[in-house]
Amino acid sequence: MTMKGWVVLALMGLWAGPSLPADAAPFTFPPMEGWTLSGQPQVFSPETLYDYIDGGADLYLKYEFEELTVVEYQKGGMSVSADVYRHRDPDHAFGIYSQERVPSAEFLTIGSQGYYERAVCNFIQGGYYVKLSGENTGADDRDILLRLARRISENLPGPAALPRILAAFPAEGKRANTEKFIAKDFLGYAFLHAGFIADYDRSGQKYQLFVIVGSGPDDARAMLGQYLKQSQHEAPTAEGPYRVKDPFHGDVALFWKGKHIWGTLHLADPSLRAAYLKYFEGLDDR
Amino acid sequence: MTMARRDFLKSAATSLGGFAYLSASLTRPPDAPEKFEGTRVLGKTGIRLPIISMGVMNTDNPQLVRSALDAGYVFLDTAQGYQRGTNEAMLGEILKDRPRDSFLIATKASLPKDQATGKYGPDATEEAYTKKIDTSLKSLHLDYVDVYHHHGTWTKDATLHEPILEALQKAKKAGKIRSIGVSTHRNEPEVIHAATDSKIYDVVLTAYNFRQQHGADVQKAIARAAGAGLGIVAMKSMGGNVRGAYASGQIDARAAIKWVLQDPNVHTIICGFTTFDQMTLDMTILKDLTLSAAEREQLRQASAAANLYCQGCGVCVGQCAQGLPIPDLMRARMYLHGYRNIVAAQDLVLSLALPREVCGDCGACPVSCTNRWNLKDRLRDVVRLRAVPAHVVA
Which stretches of chain A sit within 8 Å of chain B by CB? Predict the structure, then answer.
């Protein structure tokens, strides 16, 4: 559909245009000296995101996508497409970002975190996920994209910090930038809701540590109960360590405390498993 | 390796070894007799594959993919763009330890195009697309893929973009891809017809579902393509905006999948499951494709809720005091909201000899619609297109 087409739909009241939550600060694209914006920003809602990224929209919707604003900066034959995705909260923005980031990229201190690869600069800040892609930007590609990224970051509301829970993951052995937030169906189970997970590689052992976050202690107990029930175990009676013989993931060590359930995946060493279960006991339950 | 259908169904029902034996028959000639209803031949590619396949795009869980392959899923669908290439990379790690003849894989890529017109610019070159193909193969750790889709086109022009077709044909000749495909999520009939007429494409991957507003046109295009020998892979069985319902159980995903597979021209369907339960559940469809009365009713209600597709039953014709061509106007409304094709919608409205005041003097609308639609509101909605200047729409 043409831009005029979108305008017609909007005028006819057939297309739900951008909607900001009452407490959301309006975002505007910053000027870049020597560059012009090609027309008005295009805005996509959860209902129309398919029109922009086709089937890729599914994953964004899973991460509570709310709105996308797109503009193109142009200068001579160069152009930079700037896509600003707004998600429900910083955790979900980090979640979709973590699905797409490449651990081997050049990471940057833009917003909460960003990275650069040839013709691409992506970063998150608060509930926003910003994706810049350059076209014909030549040898100055990195400089152009980073300059624009910093300008956009200045215009965005929201804290420039990663989800606090990531700091709880032990640093030793952790593979850099492999942390993810999984918004739904954690470990492939609908009943496990959302969680954080990171890859580890220590002394030749490759394994994962995770923290599942419930809405409260009752929710965490219910999740653990379903997981145990699936493995023919009895319902959890108290906070503490548990073991699950998972038909798909193998032997899973767990610990339930408050609204959190943490554990290890694919880690055979029992002493290391026990150490990790203890390590997370200091997790802030707020 | 052979297996009686009854034995197969028994094993599928009792274990996750459902169609694990199929790998040996992946290249069975298309004229070979089917031993059971669980497979179809992907058109002229000659590939026999299970009617249920896995769309990997929504998961980053390698264990789910491994389990699906172990359970007997054979055909995996991914794309270079999914998770910015990490989806292909994840599959590469999983697949590198598996025999190449134990799975089939399709991936896809596009080049930047004008989002307003759907057309490619001068940068959409053969060289650029060849790089895309090579990048996919590198990420997947494979020498070849079974299908490479020209991804996400919605116009005839883009579907037939010469440089991309050149790149795909050369890649096929070089053995990097076995079949050339095209994927489409909107304006599907135009893309499918273009692919059919091109004589170049082997496979079409298309959105196809029970609540698609223009489903009848998609069905016809699929039938024509299949008749010409193209393999047909369906996706988006739940319709674009009801993914949440899949998880919450408001709509039975199996019913939606079965609805698509009622069409014998669809050779397999991509299921985007994200849990082990869904993986197992989708596989049970192999046992029985029959839609129960309850499932049909559920789909009918959900389809009516989509509110756009006029069945063309004709019950309304003759009931309207003004003699309005209601099915035509509902079709125009479908063009507007479903296809989002304002030009076609306005052209159709203007081609109809409508009175100046549509529904003007009518109080309660006397027309009874089998979809139980409020026709008065819908008619007033669509005839407003008459007032939109043509130069704004074009």
Answer: 1-5, 7-9, 12, 14, 42, 46-47, 50-59, 61-62, 99-102, 135-136, 180, 182, 184-185, 187-190, 247-249
Distances (CA, A) of A135 to A150, B45, B177, B374: 19, 37, 28, 49
Residue B337, in any domain of the structure? yes
Among B164, B165, B201, B208, smallest CA distance to B186 is for B208
pLDDT on residue B313: 64
Which CATH number do you get for residue A276?
A: 3.30.200
Q: Show the domain range for B360.
A: 326-393
Task: Mark whether A56 and A139 lie in a shared domain.
Answer: yes
Give dist(CA A131, CA A85) in Å, integer.
Answer: 8
Tell me: do A218 and A193 sit in the same domain.
yes
Residues A148 and A184 in one domain: no
The token duo for B187 is: 């304006």
Per-residue pLDDT of A85-128, as tens digits, reads 999 999 999 999 999 998 889 999 999 999 999 889 999 999 99
Please give the structure tokens belonging to residue B235: 């996706």
CA B62 to the chain's CA centroid = 25
What the block records as the tokens of B302 is 């959900």
Q: From the CB of residue B305, how many other CB atoms can be counted at a distance below 10 Å?
A: 12
DSSP code of B34?
P
Secondary structure (DSSP) of B349-369: HHHS---SSTT-S-SS-----
Say how far apart CA B101 and CA A249 lie, in whole Å. Answer: 25
Please list, in sequence order, all residues whose beta carbon lies within 8 angstroms of the beta carbon of residue A198, skipping any fewer than 6 positions away.
A166, A169, A174, A175, A178, A179, A180, A208, A209, A210
Would an 8 Å CB–CB cutoff place B59 in contact with chain A? Answer: yes
- A13 located within any domain: no
Same domain, yes or no: A71 and A53: yes
| Interface predicted TM-score (ipTM) of this complex, two decimals | 0.81
CA-only gyration radius of chain A, Å: 22
pTM: 0.76
Q: Which residues contact A7 (CB under 8 A, 6 or more apart)?
A: B392
Question: Each residue of A191-222: pLDDT tens digit?
Answer: 998 999 999 999 889 999 999 999 999 999 99
- Is A184 in contact with B236 (Cβ distance < 8 A)? no
